[in-house]
Each structure stands twice: as C-alpha cells, then as structure tokens.
Amino acid sequence: MADALAAVFQRPNFLTFVIIFLWGFYIMVTRYNLVKKLVGLYLVQTSVIFFLVSISAKKGATAPVLLSATDPVQAFQYANPLPHVLTLTAIVVGVATLGVALALCAAIYRRYGSLDEEDILKRLE
Amino acid sequence: MRQHLPALLFLLPLFAAISMPLVCLKHRGWSRPIAVTVLSIMSVLSIINLISIIQDGEVRYAFSGWGPLLGIEWVADVLASVILVALSLLGLMTLIFAGSTAPKNLGGRIVHFYTLILLLVAALTGIVFAGDLFNLFVFLEVAALSSYALVGVAGGPALFAAFRYLVLGTLGASLYLLGVSYFYAASGTLNMVDMAERLPHLLTSKAVVGGLLFMFIGLGIKMALVPFHAWLPDAYTHAPESVSPILASLVTKVALLGWVRIIFWVLGAKVIVYDIPVLLLVGILGTLAAVIGAVLALKQQNIKMMFAYGGISHIGIILIGVSQGNQTGFVGGIFYLLNDAFMQATLFFWAGIAMCHYGVQTIADMKRVKQAPWVTGALVIAALGMVGLPPTGGFFGKWYIMLGALEANNYLAVGAVLLSTLLTLAYFVRLFEGIFFPEPTQSDMRHHDIPFSLKLSLGVTSTAIMILGLLSDPIVRLLLAQALPPGL
Predict the structure, then answer these.
(1) Residue at A114 is within a domain
(2) How far apart (Å, rounded) are the C-alpha atoms in residues B450 and B431?
(3) Which of A17, A71, B425, B443 has the most crowded Cβ, counting Cβ within 10 A?
C-alpha cells in the first residue's frame, strides 16, 4: 500500500493529469447546462494536452536549438520537441471544436431560449 | 506523377474547400458546379490511382521529402485505394443529390455548405491514407468538425443532435489522442511501420495496454460501436436529407478502417496482450453490435432511425469479419465495408427522396411511395443488399465473413451474422408491409416531379450494389492477393 502510494506521488504530473481528466469528465456527466458541459469537455482536452507536455519535460534540458555548431550533439541537453508540436496541433483542434460547439450553443439558445438540457429535451418532445 | 497521386487526391478537395468562400463570394451559384467538377476529377484520379497501385505496387509518399521517421508519411496501398474510389464516388453522388435537397433556409450560406462537404471528403481521404497515428487523429478531427457543422446546418432539432454528437465525438477524439500519447511515450515513434517494429517488445508495458484501450474506446465512439452508439441515430435522423447519406456511408466506415489499420498494421494480427487476443475482444464486441443494432432497428417507427440502427448493426458484422484472424474473414469484412457504404448511401438517398417528395417519415406514411415504382424498386435492391440475398454484393460479403468464421470454428459469430440477417429481413418486411399492405387511413397524396439529379444518384448507388455483387469475385481475389495485412 505504502509502495503504491509512493509510486503515485513520485509522478505528480500523472496524478495531476488524472485529477483534471476525471474532474472534466465529472462535470460533463453531471451538469445539465450545455456551456458547463463544454467547460468539462475542454478540461478533458486540456488534461490530455497537459499529459503530452509533461512526458516531454526533461531536467536541465533546453529548447532543441543547437548550443554549439562544432560540439557533437548530446541528447540529454535538449528537450524532445515532438510532443510540443503535437500539443500545438491538439490545441488548434481543441479551439476549433470549442468554436463550433459555442456556435451550436448560440443557435440552440436562439431557438429554444434555454441552455438547460432538460428544458430542451422537454421541448423536443 | 504516379508518386504524387495520393497527395493530389487530398489537396484537390482541400484547396477547393479553402478557396470556395473566396471564389463564390459574388456568385454563390458557382459553388455547386465547382464542387461537382472537383469531385468528378477526384473520382477519375482515384480510379487511375487504384489501377496504378494494382499494377506497380504501393506508394509511400513522404511530405516535403522528409523521410518516414522525421516527416509525415502517407501509405497508398490497395486497401486504401479501393476504399478511396468508393469514397470519392459516394462524395460525388452526395453532391449531385444535394442539388435540390440542400436545406432551403441557407441562402448565402449554401457556399459554406459545399465547402464543408469538400472539407469532409478531404479529411476522409487523409484518414484513409494516413501512415502515422497522430496524422490519423488530426484528420479524424477535421472530418468530425465538418460533420458536426453539417448535421447542425439546417437548425431545428438537428442542433441539439449535433451538440450531442460533438460532445461525444470530441470525448472520443481526446481518448484516442490519449492512447496515441501513451503509445508515443512507450515506443518513441508515431509512424505506423516503425511502431509495428518496436511494439512486439513492449506488449507487457502497461502504457501500451492502456493506450490500446483508450484508442479502442475513442475509435469505438467514432465508428458508433454498440455501447458508444448513442450519438448516431439522432444525428443521422435530424441531419438534412442531403447530408445524412455521406455521413452514414462514409464517416463511421472510415473510422473503422482506421481501427483496422491499427490492429493489423501496427499491432499485428496475432497479437496477444496479457493472454487476451485483441481480435477475440473485437469479435465479441462486433457480435454484440450486430445483434443489438438489428434488434433496435426492428423497434423503430421512423424510417431514417431504422436505417441508422441498421448501419450500427452492419458495423458489427464488418468487425466480426475482420476479427476472425484468417484471410477469408478479413477480405469478407473489407468487401462488406465497401458494400455497406453503398447500401447506406442508397438507403439514405431513398429516405431523402421519400421525405422531400412524399412526406414519408414513419412506416405509417410508407404507402405514399407506392405511386413511384422506381423508387420502390431502388428500395427493393437496397433491401436485398442489406438482408444479403444472392445477386447483390451484401450476399457475397456475408458469405465470406461466414466462411471465415467457420474456418475459425467460431460458431457464435456465424450465429450472430445469421440472427442479424433474420432481424434485418424482419425490419425490411415491416417497411414493405407499410408500402404494399397499408393500414386503411386517409392519405394526402402530394406528388412532385422528382428531379433528374435525385434519380441519378439513387440509380447509381443502387446499381452499384448489384455491380459489386457481379464483380465480387475479381474484387475479393484482388483483396486476397494484394490487400492483406502482414502476418495474416
């Protein structure tokens, strides 16, 4: 038990990721307001992005620009740039999704005059 | 030239989509002819591409000349090229169909409507060709974003269906991305070929197992596999008549193709994770989906709802086929996927025509289509395909799937395919009962002349169901010879 706990706390970034992910998921499932659902969804997306960034972190490493043109390249001096690039793309995708989602919310509000899921479902029937 | 065809096939609809809002700023009437031209060229190119790939072997396209490990790689093999031909032809048919069924209240925004359809086709092309896992995610999301917008484009009840689709779809995409980052953390690569070399040594890693699970749930939501199918029926039923055919025929099937790529090309067909064969798991879920989808379809009154659940059950049948772990089953599954794309397109074209011109929404209204024999004829052909009777492609697809299941001694799967066939027969009998033996109620006949474009698209797709049946032997031979995954 103590070992398992120690293993969990050894990687605080993974713990943070799990907490943010589940928090977002909880908000998505329990809230009836559509915009609140979106907040939960965005937290889920952000947690995945956070996970991607955190696995590429390296102590004492710097941005992947060569420190010297003559010395041989030492991998431990540089952070891995690929996860950051993936993160950028994932952020762009997330923002685009949020844009479409908010546009849909606005259209739903204009039509039904409410953002509450139960109200809308009642009117749909 | 041949080397660049895969990239051209993607860039053509993409550039058309991007430039359309500018080109059609003053002349919104141009949008449809431009879109139809672009997709016609794309269909011709995709056929040329298929022929060249069959003759000279697969093409691996490295973008900007960066090699596979550093840059983005696209793989155009026979499997991808065959699916792409179906994809571009169905995209073209949808555009022809959209001419007179596009939502009337769009006005100037009709330009954006065609832009979104082109963007969807471009993104699906990207998924089909993608050779690395992250690329697959990006194109999945582009395709999903355009589908959310297309579902909600007409307003009304579709808005809420689109919102639900968006929430579930984005959750699926996030889970898929999480799976990809687990795989990346474990193996240090994203390229499918490279990862296939490294994964066999990593199968005991919890990161790989977790990543596989997250990817499967994510793609399962995208392909509407049974426990995750809740978004699909509402979205396809409320989507505009001109949009549901392309969504139903392509979006879920292409997500399924992505999953097939991951289990067969990245993990390998015989992979066993912690004593559990992955294919067995997929097969069980497919069995459940095939039966549950058909049962739910039988319960529906709304015809589009019924067709949507029928599509869910067919996703299960395709999964049963590919998960048998032998060549016959795999080829049967892929052949059935092709057929199912055309059958779903035919069914939703039919539902669109019946809705727009005869006001048919539920089974009770079905008697109104009796006055147009050719419309009923197209439904008969689609029904033959869905049930799986001999002259159509659906029969041969199911035939090979069952042969594969018998070869693997998997009688449960055989039973599930048979049961789902019987249930499919049952719900089509209900439809035809509605047409030929209507309950006596007063009917308000409203009949307009059906435009040629609708007849053309419905005619082409229903003919395609028959042609696929007639050509099943060469297609299956081709798939058996050139489209099998390594190690199967």
Answers:
(1) yes
(2) 21
(3) A17
Question: Which of A120-124, B445-449, B475-479 is the least confident region?
Answer: B445-449
Q: Do B184 and A96 touch (CB under 8 A)?
A: no
Scanning every residue of chain B, which has its alpha carbon at the shortest distance from the alpha carbon of A116? B160
Give tens-digit pLDDT for B188-202. 888 888 888 888 888
B210 burial level (CB within 10 Å; 0-12, 13-18, 19+): middle
The tens digit of pLDDT for each residue in B119-156 reads 999 999 999 998 889 999 999 999 999 999 999 887 77
Tokens 């555009």, residue?
B95
Q: Is B162 on the interface with A (CB under 8 A)?
A: yes
CATH number of the domain enclosing A112: 1.10.287.3510
Nearest-by-Cβ selection for B174 from A38, A48, A120: A48
Query: What is the residue range of A48's domain?
Result: 2-57+79-124
Q: Suggest the residue from A21, A85, A97, A120 to mutate for an interface test with chain B (most B CBs closer than 10 A).
A: A97
Contact A101 B163 (CB under 8 A): yes
The CA distance from A5 to the nearest CA of chain B, in Å, is 18
Non-local (6+) Cβ contacts of A102 within 8 A are A35, A38
Per-residue model confidence (pLDDT) at position B443: 55
Nearest to B160 among A28, A89, A124 (CB): A124
**Residue B445 confidence (pLDDT):** 55
Q: What amino acid is encoded at B472 in this protein? A: S
Domain boundaries, chain B: 269-488
- In degrees, rounded to 5, the angle at the alpha carbon of residue B77 between the alpha carbons of residues B71 and B82 is 130
| Amino acid B447: pLDDT | 59
Q: How many angstroms away from the CA of A68 is the closest CA of chain B?
A: 22
> Are B82 and B50 within 8 A, CB to CB?
yes
C-alpha span between B155 and B357 (Å, rounded): 20
Give B76→chain A minimum CA distance, Å.
Answer: 24
pLDDT tens digits, B404-425: 999 888 888 899 999 999 999 9
Q: Does residue A89 belong to any structural domain of this protein?
A: yes
Residue in the block written with tokens 């992005």: A49
Distance from CA of A90 to the nearest CA of B (A): 8
Q: What is the ipTM of this complex?
A: 0.93
Q: Is A79 on the interface with B (CB under 8 A)?
A: no
Structural domains counted in chain A: 1
B152 and chain A in contact, CB less than 8 A: yes
Helix (H) or strand (E) holding B75: strand B73-76
What is the chain A residue with the closest CA to B157? A124
- The arithmetic mean of pLDDT across residues B55-82, rounded, is 86
A73 within some domain: no
